[in-house]
Amino acid sequence: MSDGASAHHHVVDGIDLRALPKVSLHDHLDGGLRPQTIIELAEPLGLELPASDADSLAAWFAEKSDSGSLVEYLKTFDLTTAVMQTAEGLTRVSREFVEDLAADGVVWGEIRWAPEQHLARGLSLDEAVEAVQRGLDEGVDAAAEVGHGIRVGQLISAMRHLDRGTEIAELALRHRDRGAVGFDIAGPEAGFPAGRFAEAFDLLARECFPATVHAGEADGLESIRGALVDGHALRLGHGVRIAEDITIESQDDEASYVSLGRLAQWVKDRGIALETSPSSNLQTGAIAAWGDDLTAHPFDLLYQLGFRVTVNTDNRLMSATSLTRELALLVDAFGYDLDDLLTFQINAAEAAFLPLEDRAELVELLERGFGAA
C-alpha cells in the first residue's frame, strides 16, 4: 500500500522514518491484505466485490472503516477472511504481509489472526496455522533477498464471542516451537470478558505461554482488569482506556497534576505494554471520550506519565496506514523527535514475546539503526 501522498510528513530531523528499524506488536493478518490480492483471490472463488480495481477497493475499505463504529469497521473483515479460506490464499497473504512489513522497516513483527475463522473451505485448524507459517517463512526469505532483515511470529487469536478458547489455546501450544509465539483473544470486547476463557488462560499460564488480550478498546476498566486477572495478560491490546483511571486534578500554564487509580498505577508500575494503534483507536471510537482527532488521543498523556506505550497499525488495509505513517501522525500531533520514536520501539522490543536475549539483541539493533540515522 502506498502512502506516497503524505510521504513528506515521514521525514523527521532530516531522516526518512521508513528507513528506521521498527517493532510491530499489534497487526492483524486479515487487516493487512493488498487490494489487488483480494481481487485476484476472489475471482476463482466467485466472490462479489464492492469494487473491481485495486484503488477503488482500497477506497471502499478506508470509507467503511472510518465511520466511528467498531461494528461497521468489523464488517470489512468478512471480505478479507473470505479470500483466506484455502491454504494457497493463507500462504500468499502471509508472505505478502511480511514483505510489506519489511519494506516499511519492521525488524520484528508479531502477526495475529484467528484460525477458527478460516475453516469454511475444509482446512483444519492445524492446516491453517501451517499454511500461514509457510507464507511467513517465504516472506522472511523474500525480504532477506532484497536486503531487509525481518523476523516474525504468530499470535494465535481466539474469537471472544465464540466458545473455542481452550481448543485454540491447545492449538497455539502445539505450534509453539513452529512459529506461534503468543495467544490473544479478539472480536467484540464489550460483553465478552476475558473470564469467559479462564480455563484457556490458566492452561497457557501453566504451560508458560504468553498472552496479550484486547482490552480497553471497545470496553473500559473492568475489561482491562479482567485481561490482567483472568487472562494473565502480559500486554494489553490497545489498552488506551486505562486513561479512564487517570484524573487530571488541575492544569496551569506550567504543568498539570494528575492522580492515578490503582489499576492505572498497577499497569504503569508493572511496565505492562499498551499496544496502542492511533488511527484505529480514532476510527473505532476507542478514544471518543477524549475527542475526535489524534491530538485528543491519551497516548501522549500515557507516555509522559511513564506508561510503556507502543505504536501499532492494527489493520493496515482498513486504516490505509503503515507503521511509518502512524509514527509520522504522532510526530505531527505531539511534536515528537527521533529519541521519542526510538523509545516507542524499545518499549515494543522489551515487550516482545521473544526470549530475553533476543529482546536485548533487538534493542541493540534498534539503537544502532536510530544511531546511524
From TrEMBL:
Keywords attached to this entry: Hydrolase, Metal-binding, Zinc
GO molecular function: hydrolase activity
Domain Adenosine deaminase residues, every copy: 21-366
Pfam families recorded: A_deaminase
Claim: Zinc is one of the keywords in the record: yes
Enzyme class per UniProt: hydrolase
Cofactor: Zn(2+)
Enzyme Commission code(s) on record: 3.5.4.4
Membrane-spanning parts: none
PANTHER family linked: ADENOSINE DEAMINASE (PTHR11409)
Family: Belongs to the metallo-dependent hydrolases superfamily. Adenosine and AMP deaminases family.
Official protein name in the record: adenosine deaminase
Species classification: Bacteria, Bacillati, Actinomycetota, Actinomycetes, Micrococcales
